[in-house]
Amino acid sequence: MHAIEWLKTELTAQLGGLFRAMLSARKDAVIECLAAIISCSYLLARRLGVGFRRVDARIDQRLHSSIQDDHQLETWYGDLSALQDYRKSERKGRG
Q1: Dist. CA 2–CA 73, nearest whole Å
Q2: Band of the pLDDT at 7, cuts 50, 70, 90?
Q3: pTM exceeding the 0.90 threshold for the entire prediction
Q4: Tell me: the pLDDT tens digits for 15-67?
Q5: Where are the domains of the chain?
Q6: Residue 69 in 3-state DSSP?
Q7: What are phi and psi for residue 69, nearest 5 degrees?
Q8: Cβ count near 69 (within 10 Å)
Q9: CB atoms within 10 A of CB 14
């Protein structure tokens, strides 16, 4: 339980850090906070009994579904397809 509470606090702190970094337009700090938020999310999932692969599978499902549903970020910028393509290429590169 202690690890879960710590991760929740860390996520909140990193989110605040992200917003501050965005205000000051510090790209390195933005990247650092985003990486910390993503890492903490995976670790929180693990502490809650959800495996990394299951999180990845759900991300893939959400991307596919959102693309099919013409999500605004997809319609406007193609962001979801770009992320989906990136994730696919990363898996191919590792396998």
Answers
A1: 37
A2: very high
A3: no
A4: 999 999 999 999 999 999 999 999 999 999 999 999 999 999 999 999 999 99
A5: 1-50, 51-95
A6: coil
A7: -90, 10
A8: 11
A9: 21
